Predict the structure.
Amino acid sequence: MTRLLPRLIAFAAIAFALIWVLFAARNTNFGPAIDDPKNFFITLLNGLTFAGLLFIVASGFALIFGLMRVINMAQGVFFLLGGYIAYDMQQKIAEGGGFTLLPADVNAWEWLIPALVATLSIGVFGLGVQQLLLRWNQGQDLRQALITIALSVILADQVIEHFHGGLGRSVTWPGSIEKFVDLHVFGIQYSLARLTVLALSLLVGALLWLWLYRTRTGMVIRAGVDDRQMTSALGINIQRTFAIAFFVGSALAGFGGAVGATQAGAATGADGQWLLNSLVVVIIGGLGSLLGAAVGSLLYGLVFTFAAVYLPSGYTNYAIVFTFALLALVLAFRPQGLVGRPG
Amino acid sequence: MTKGWTAKRIVERCVGVVVLVFVAIGPAALTDYWVSSILTQTFLLGIAAASLIFLSAYGGMISLAQTAIFGIAGFALANLVTTDATGGQNLGWNPWLGVAGAIVIATAIALVFGALASRSLGIYFLMITLALGVIGFYFFLQVDKLSGRAGIPTIRAHAPSIVGDTSAAPERLYYVALVLAFAVYVVIRYVVRTPFGIALQGIRDEPVRMASLGYNVPVHRMLAFGLAGFFASLGGVLYAWWNDLMDPAAIDLNAIVSLLVVAVIGGLGRIEGAWLGAFAFILINNYVRDIEVPVLGGSFPTVIGFIFLAIVLVSPDGLMGLWDRVWSGGRRRGDPPEVAVDVQRSAPEASPS
């Protein structure tokens, strides 16, 4: 009975959401999906691309947490910082200049190089934080969490001080990407840029999978996630592994920030939003596994996007309630997350 | 729990009495700015911090959702009592009824939050409560029927007569806040001596053992969370009167972290730390604002962030921990009435339920 009930409730919730979106959503922006399949598929694609960006940022968060039991509360600020660094870098190298560059003035390299610079800088910065502040507090996880909170307070203020007053800035997609393509489904013209985000997240996921499951370092990391002490007792230099993981985890926040600043712009406030996003993804997906981050991103991305569109008109700003409901449902029945292992 | 009158205890009692006498006659001696801006705010922020410290010191749970509950009480009050404000529902209830309603709503939501988070421990608990806290902020930011970005003004005009017009007679709210702060302190000191409080401390130290002794661990945690939510809601109601305006910025990520900073500065191990931390935080906020940070630049958050970082790195038990250490001859946690929120201990993923 105790096993059946949560499944029934989860099933009922999913069934209700599907029936609502497919058939019943009469007085919403688009109406039910059977009447307006085009906008349904656009919303679905929007949800998937948002989930892709979520995955890039949250997989870094989950990697750091899984291995070191550190919740990097500064992940949101790292995201924001990555966005601004990419913006400044692009302003420096791209011809044309101006407050926001035109896509036509930006070629593929002039997007890729700023994004990689942001990725590497945030990675190195995160590594420095880990070595200077966190390493000698290892094993004291609450203290480490408080340290990263203190860091996020300082950094959020420093971003305002040194990066355009924390005001909105957008990185520009290259002209070759910033256009619409015909998907040949219900006549949908869809943004190639958004599809690129999806492709980038799949690439990140594939690379992370290859790294974690097909290399020696990845094997050590997975062993460390399972049993830290045993792994270091086997003579493996776990400190080096920690450093690598923190570098990669932070770098992913920086890369996500560059992508996010291109897609939606960077501005103060994004740090809190993306801290919440990372937290929600790892809480519902389950901590410490790639699959958990993927499942969490997908679920949260879809629920978030659909709730914002398929709520009755005038109530679309209640979408946040669905974030809470999703969190509550998962916590009530699977406190360890959907694919997390019980502690 | 009975202890002799150690020198430390006598000193603490004396300091406590002196402070109480001082704040009781405060309005007669202090400027209006000190009365209304600094001390009244200290009392109400201290109440919110006390709800956090109560959970951490006696329940071993560091909750970042207290700010959201504080805010829910404030927003509920603002929606219930105002009549023609530019935001909110303007239900125009009787002020006392509104206060009761706000506290009941906030405490009920605290119990729900507690039920969701109470099966997790340590940093998982921290993470879940942080997510709940930030969701609280976005809820009031986005749902414009209940607040929206601009918030709900003119709450003060609908305060009960005992509070009255706080700009004309600031000492009224001052005394209300003082009495409530003292009451919260006394109630916490009492609760931790009851069987419930002692079981809670047992659960803090040995959750598995307490569970096998037949205590319902998640329910104890949830009830403690509800009680802390009740305290936080008192702080929220006071804040709504004090600030006159409830807007989402009052419970944003900055505010969430600030409350944690207050609690950490004061010390997560002892209730007195709540007001000590609040006082220190507000003093820094008021008088160290315009300091120039060398090299980095930046403003108040940078300053407070470094202070927070220094305290976490040097003295995780905060000012009260420092005080305890002075008396125990430099040892980290020696003397009871301890305390020792174990910042050091790692926690398993979820307790057996």
